[in-house]
Write a structure and sequence with these properties.
The complex is a heterodimer of chains A (191) and B (467). With 191 residues, chain A is an alpha/beta fold. Helix content of chain A is 32%, strand content 17%. Chain B is of the alpha/beta class. Chain B contains 17 helices and 19 strands. In chain B, the strands form five sheets. Chain B has a five-stranded parallel beta sheet, sandwiched between helices. In chain B, strand 13 and strand 14 form a beta hairpin. Classes of the chains: A alpha/beta (191), B alpha/beta (467).
Chain lengths: 191, 467
């Protein structure tokens, strides 16, 4: 995995609460056996109408959203199904961070393993982001902070181990495999 | 010794290496449930890295999500009845399990079924175990006093390769349920009521323990319905203390311990319930005595009301968006709303007792011609047991369809789906936009309420039909 230190980008704002992973990637696209190409189906039922035409009123279809790598979502982003296809689709589309006041547990875990940084901020900061779509912001892993264009810096929580893995491009599996002897001892103890 | 909760006891017993500020705990997994949709990329990862499955004996694999619910006895049938991408995924699962030495309860297996239905019915789900699966409804198994939670595909790979996961310990939430359920009110109504009370994010970061007399009085199948939807309140795990009801259910199941092993296991299981004085990070009290059948009106399971209540009004964009999608008006009750489809099944309500309840309403009644009723047993065993009781004949005589086991119309991945704009009353777990098919509208309810909608053609309080 690629090492990430900071992401600087304009934001795309989708201020709907409780966006579930069925919206991020509908189940009919889960018959894939790879991770690639899911970006085409990201938010499929919000991006396209029944005939497959782009809905011009959906934020991702607006010209100003093109190339943006940071998504600002409503409270409780990524709830519902555990499908890792949701972060795969977001990353494949080009997103590298998701900002919300709350991010669902499984989605947050899955994101951290795919180079998609979950950023949880306080309500006033979130409100500012929602009111200023397209703002140039920076998610900085080194300082664990979100930097706003007016110079403000807002700290966000991130698990230390996940941060270390993201910043060094490490796969968490490597750490588990290094602990094979402890796992073996546990199995002997338990049996 | 300090008093510990059920969750703490199970967690503590599975810590291979404790957590610190710098790293999560390494948690051992006793049972890994595997299905075709969230595993192919994990098996590819193993191949890429040249890894084996560490403990194939601790994996239980089946085909459920993308399998069609018309009979498939062989790959040849699959070519004919399945959508091609789903068929490729199912075949891939057969290949992956064969290559990595995992026993698969696949086509033509009489043990096949929804992963959260077969784990318990085979007796693989046991108190005190840690159970994971690449599926958020893994919380179901918490009904046995197991710590069971959903994981993503990367973690499926971790569990396959190491039988362990890196985990931060969640906080605990006690939900105390007291009172006696009235007639026509079920476990499904309890969990919908809970989600309505605490919200779809109310359990985020927590493992729930459902406690109290209303829980102790539930059967295992009812407890599974409650724990199943813990994730719809944001909690990855929902647990219930094991008791006599639990042992009675497990005794004699194919994978349950036997003889001396059973006695030993039982002695261990009896120590699992939370100690008096165990502390929880949060707690919520709910009395179920006045509970009515619950129905959802919006696009998440927290948007739920008693069936007699009017749909609330709320000046909020997400709320208005949900009602617009559902084509439902605020200020009016849902009763009387015409329905197109009724789905009875899923890991929430696809067990024998659910089908019995539905049949009790369907018996001697007829589904109107303009309504489609689909009844899908949660497993092949549920199907056989229901057929032995003649329940399929009741479904068929009412004009319903009786299918093979699978996730079916809950996830709409292979053939069974609600078409655009149609309104479904469903015993499944998610009323998200498009969950049951692109543009489909879903009302979540109990099997009794769903069956009542099927025979009347409109949303109906099942209590008006009970004899």
């Amino acid at each position: 995995m690629e090492a990430i230190a900071r992401i600087s980008s304009r934001t795309v704002v989708l201020p709907i609460e409780d966006i579930d992973t069925d919206q991020i990637i509908p189940a009919r696209f889960l018959t894939t056996t790879t991770k690639q190409g899911l970006g085409d189906h990201l938010f499929a039922d919000w991006r396209y109408d029944a005939d497959g035409r782009q809905r011009t009123d959906f934020v991702l279809n607006r010209p100003e959203s093109e190339g943006a790598a940071i998504l600002v979502g409503g409270h409780n982003f990524g709830c519902g199904s555990s499908r890792e296809h949701a972060p795969w689709a977001l990353v494949d589309y080009g997103f590298r961070a998701v900002i919300s006041t709350e991010i669902a547990d499984i989605f947050r875990n899955n994101s951290l393993k795919n180079g998609l940084i979950p950023v949880i901020v306080d309500a006033p900061t979130h409100e500012w982001l929602v009111e200023n779509p397209g703002a140039e912001v920076t998610v900085d892993l080194e300082s664990r902070s979100l930097m706003l264009p007016d110079g403000r810096s807002v700290a966000f929580p991130i698990d230390g181990f996940s941060r270390y893995c993201l910043m060094n491009g490490l796969d968490e599996l490597g750490f588990l495999l290094e602990n094979a002897s402890a796992i073996r001892e546990f199995e002997l103890r338990a049996s | 010794m300090t008093a510990r909760s059920l969750f703490e006891k199970v967690w503590d017993a599975h810590v291979v290496a404790p957590e610190s500020v710098d790293r999560p705990a390494i948690l051992y997994v006793d049972l890994h449930l595997v299905h075709e949709v969230t595993s192919p990329q994990a098996f590819d990862m193993l191949r890429d890295k040249g890894l084996k499955v560490r403990r194939p004996d601790l994996c239980l694999a089946t085909l459920d999500h993308s399998i069609p619910t018309v009979p498939v006895m062989s790959l040849k049938d699959l070519e004919i009845v399945s959508e091609p991408a789903a068929a490729r995924q199912l075949i891939k699962m057969e290949e992956n399990c064969a290559e990595f030495g995992i026993e698969l309860h696949g086509f033509a297996s009489d043990r096949r079924g929804i992963v959260h239905v077969i784990g318990p019915e085979l007796g693989a789900t046991q108190p005190g175990k840690t159970i994971v699966c690449g599926d958020s409804h893994t919380s179901t198994h918490g009904a046995f006093g197991a710590l069971a939670f959903g994981i993503g595909t990367t973690e499926v790979g971790h569990a396959l390769a190491t039988q362990c996961l890196l985990q931060r310990r969640p906080r605990t939430l006690a939900i105390n349920l007291e009172g006696t359920l009235g007639p026509g009110v079920t476990a499904k109504d309890i969990i919908l009521r809970i989600i309505g009370a605490i919200g779809v994010g109310g359990g985020t970061g927590h493992a729930i323990e459902y406690r109290g007399s209303a829980i102790a009085g539930l059967s295992m199948e009812e407890r599974m319905t409650v724990c199943n939807m813990s994730i719809e309140a944001g909690a990855r795990a929902g647990m219930i203390a094991p008791d006599d009801t639990t042992w009675e259910y497990l005794a004699g199941r194919p994978l349950a311990p036997r003889g001396q092993d059973w006695d030993q296991a039982l002695a261990h299981w009896r120590k699992l319930p939370s100690d008096a004085g165990a502390q929880y990070d949060k707690s919520v009290d709910i009395d179920v005595s006045e509970l009515a059948p619950m129905v959802t009106f919006g696009t998440n399971p927290g948007m739920v009301i008693p069936i007699d209540d009017a749909v609330p009004e709320q000046d909020d964009p997400a709320f208005r968006k949900a009602l617009a999608y559902m084509q439902i008006e605020a200020g009016k009750p849902l009763s009387g709303q015409p329905v197109n489809v009724v789905f009875i099944g899923s890991c929430t309500n696809g067990r024998l007792s659910d089908i019995r309840q539905a049949a009790s309403v369907l018996e001697g009644r007829r589904v109107p011609d303009n309504v489609r009723l689909l009844v899908v047993p949660g497993s092949e065993r549920v199907k056989r047991d229901a057929e032995a009781e003649g329940l399929h004949e009741i479904v068929l005589a009412a004009g319903g369809e009786w299918r093979e086991a699978g996730c079916s119309m809950c996830i709409a991945m292979n053939g069974d789906r609600v078409t655009r704009g149609q309104l479904a009353v469903s015993t499944s777990n998610r009323n998200f936009e498009g969950r049951q098919g692109s543009g489909a509208r879903t009302i979540l309810a109990s099997p009794l309420t769903a069956a009542a909608a099927a025979v009347t053609g409109v949303v109906t309080d099942p209590r008006t039909l009970l004899s």
